[in-house]
Structures are given as C-alpha cells and as structure tokens.
Design goal:
This protein is α+β, with helices and mostly antiparallel strands and about 130 residues long. The protein contains five helices and seven strands; from the N terminus they run ααββααββαβββ.
C-alpha cells in the first residue's frame, strides 16, 4: 500500500466527531431596556446551550456587570440599563474562562469538585485545571 491509500484508510476509521468542522458558537443575549432596568429573556437558554450550571453562570455575569438582579422565570431583570453588547462580551468571557478547554479548544467541559476546590475537566481531551 502506498502512503495515500494508507492515509485514506486511516481517515475512514476516524470517528465522525473528529472530522466535524462546525465551530461552537456562543449564543447572543435577547432582551430589552424597560425604564431604568434591563430585561433578559434567554439567559436560561444560553446557560443550557453552554452546558453550565445556571447559578454559577448568573453569579459570574452579575459580578462582572456589578448589578443587582430580580428573577421572574423565565425573565432575568437587571437593576440598571446595560447594553446588549456589554452583556454579550461577559457571556463570551464566561465561555472562554469556564466552557472552552484551554488545552484542546473544545466546549466539552464540566465542573468537578475535589476537596472543596472546583476544577474544570475537559471531557474531550481529559485536561483538568482549577477554575478561578
């Protein structure tokens, strides 16, 4: 067998997940400003798409935006006016910090607690590092 046929044969045996070229896309926030508050309508869906714990996600967003919150499921009402682009930036920061693996770049991570320390474990490559 020549090199090309060996290469073709090896490629055929690879799992489909390795060959996929679609990129992970971070969803955009949907909401509106109502008076002096910002009403977000899809924060629960974003946390679900990212595959993360909603409470952890919300706590990070609120801390970064320095705003109080009122929760009226399915709406999240922020205590002040905040532009969608600023909220989207914080969602993107969260994804890069807690969802996307620092080793392989795949969004297949989960939180693992060991001895009261929260770790991020990649389910794709097996990397594990502390979340901070």
């Amino acid at each position: 067998m020549d090199y090309e046929s060996l290469l073709r044969r090896a490629r055929e045996k690879l799992p489909d997940s390795v060959l996929k070229t679609e990129r992970f896309s971070i969803p955009k926030i949907r909401g509106h400003i109502q008076g002096n508050k910002t009403v977000l309508s899809n924060l629960y869906q974003i946390a679900d798409i990212l595959g993360t714990d909603f409470d952890h996600f919300l706590k990070y967003i609120l801390k970064e935006l320095a705003t109080p919150v009122e929760i009226r499921k399915p709406l999240i009402i922020l205590g002040r006016k905040i532009g969608a682009s600023r909220i989207n930036d914080k969602v993107k920061e969260y994804a890069h910090k807690f969802i996307i693996c620092k080793e392989c770049g795949k969004p297949d991570t989960s939180f693992v607690r060991q001895n009261r320390i929260l770790f991020i474990k990649c389910n794709a490559c097996g990397a594990k590092y502390p979340s901070h």
